[in-house]
Design a protein that fits this description.
This protein is mainly alpha-helical. It has a domain of 73 residues. Helices cover 69% and strands 2% of the residues. It has two helices and two strands. The protein has a two-stranded antiparallel sheet. The chain is rod-shaped and about 185 Å long. The chain starts with a helix and ends in an 11-residue tail after the last helix.
Length: 181
């Protein structure tokens, strides 16, 4: 132990000897005049810069160990709160994406059913138009048939009248009674 202290003392004295100036001269009694630093002015015309030399201000105690521990604790709490909020946002995002996919699938289904419904509506309209054309044709044919039937009846009645007139002239001269149908 003693040897260690001797080594330490020897080392310290060696370093102290290196630190001393080679010659000590008498100090000059002339004061050293330092030039005044240049003053910078801000936009408002007031001087800007560091505090003047020799100004003493109360130091901020924000560098202490307790302050650093408090700041660390606050940052850990903020981190935990942000992680919880991030998880909530992620779950909301997943739910929204799932709802969006479901909505897109429903829309695709609606578009498919809408397309098939429009095709069936078009087919029914075409069928309705065809049936209307057939019905109009059937009405025309029925009316033509009634017209022909009426013309035949008129012709038959005219022929019967002509026969009865001819039979009445050749016989008694009386008119035969008309047939009602």
């Amino acid at each position: 132990m003693r040897s260690k202290t001797l080594i330490v003392l020897a080392t310290l004295s060696l370093f102290a000897a290196c630190k001393m100036p080679a010659s000590q001269s008498a100090p000059d009694h002339t004061p050293i005049v330092e030039p005044e630093p240049a003053v910078l002015y801000g936009r408002d015309g007031k001087p800007v810069g560091a505090a003047p030399r020799g100004a003493v201000a109360e130091q901020d105690q924000s560098g202490g160990r307790m302050t650093l521990l408090e700041l660390y604790q606050k940052s850990c709490e903020e981190r935990d709160a942000l992680l919880a909020e991030l998880e909530l946002v992620r779950s909301d995002l997943e739910r929204t994406q799932t709802a969006l996919l479901d909505a897109q699938q429903r829309i695709a289904g609606y578009e498919t059913s809408s397309t098939s419904e429009l095709q069936s509506v078009d087919a029914l309209r075409a069928e309705n138009l065809d049936l209307a054309a057939r019905l109009a044709t059937a009405h025309i044919r029925r009316m033509e048939a009634e017209k022909t039937l009426l013309e035949l009846r008129i012709a038959m009645l005219a022929e019967e009248q002509a026969k009865s007139v001819a039979a009445g002239d050749s016989g008694t001269g009386e008119h035969a009674p008309e047939h009602k149908q």
